[in-house]
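Encode chain A's predicted structure.
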Amino acid sequence: MAAVRLISKLALGKALQSSSRVVLPRSLQFRSFSYTASRLQEYAPEEKAQFPGAKTEYTEKLEFIRPDIYDGIPTYRVLNKNGEIIEAENDPNLDKDFVIKMYKAMTQLNTMDKILYESQRQGRISFYMTNFGEEGTHVGSAAALDAKDLIWGQYREAGVLMWRGFPLEQFMAQCYGNADDIGKGRQMPVHYGSRDLNFVTISSTLATQMPQAVGSAYAIKRRGQDNCVVCYFGDGAASEGDAHAALNFSATLDAPIIFFCRNNGYAISTPTYEQYRGDGIAARGPGYGMATIRVDGNDAFAVFNAMKAARRICINESRPILVEAMTYRIGHHSTSDDSSAYRSVDEVNYWDKQDHPISRLRKYMLLQGWWTTEEEKAWMKETRRNVMHKFQEAEKTLKPRPRELFFDVYDEPSVRLQRQLEEMEDFVERHQDVYPVDIYTK
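Encoded structure for chain A:
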């Protein structure tokens, strides 16, 4: 071994005389690391830091990096609050029909939220989560993706699924847990999913989707497919351990995944200033070695441009991307929350009236002459009628058979499960006076 080391040094010394870059024999190469003249101290005129775990230089100053002198990552935008393109070179140049489709998806989501929120308040469904104020992050991002890209959502991405074509009747069926629900009524409301639309079913547990999404992205990479994974999460989920595991896992494996963070200012009742001390979520990206961008989430065009570019990098370079969309959660966290206990009405009204993603896109359409006040009134009336029609149909539809609880876990139900099923059906049959069997399908 000593002879091998001596020969290697002699060979390196000769090579360095003619070239600043040395290609080692395969036996001496380690992954993508290659030696250069500047990295070999015995041949370099001065010392250079060569630690394998960081990109660094030596310094003689005892100095700590302080967050209070850090300017922060800028927020990319295309439209100002008046709906005007700020710089022509950033105009996505989307045609009239495409922009109107985006606008209709955002407003239909808003209308559906209002009706289902009131439905829960009236005791018709058990739970609901609105998307008020975040419609631009949903539709702007979804519109930039390919239909074959796999989506892992958190629980506030209904607009992504709506853009992909998930019908109103399925949204309603899921929230009502009726017999038309793809999930057969087993999930709590707003936990949507669709195999046909490449949208993985929502899980309640915060951030659980993040490492799972990385695993699926790595599988896509191994198969050599030309699509990517998009993982949505909130600023609150970013505080979970699963978030760290997912981000680091994706970076070290160069997985083709876009992490899309909806930073809406609150993790349920915890404001961001109590949740973390750093510069948002985007500041963490470089620390993981990930290309990162912060975008105005209330600007649908900015989100569209950012996601389009992120997807291109993700697929062409097979590497993860972190996108932080700055927005504001206008509604309560859920129907189990009362946000008036921890934020003022004035604060909410500002974002609702002064900086709403729907109104910003509408102003753009009006400036282009693509939309009129009359069309606005007609569309709002039409979409409310459509949502109410599907709402009423879902409410009348019977619930799935109770026996469905025992299937779809195992390929064949075990003897124990079969016995439990028989016991349940026998018990319900003997106590029909206390079980509303007439609301279930036979």
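Confidence is low (pLDDT under 50) at residues 1-41.
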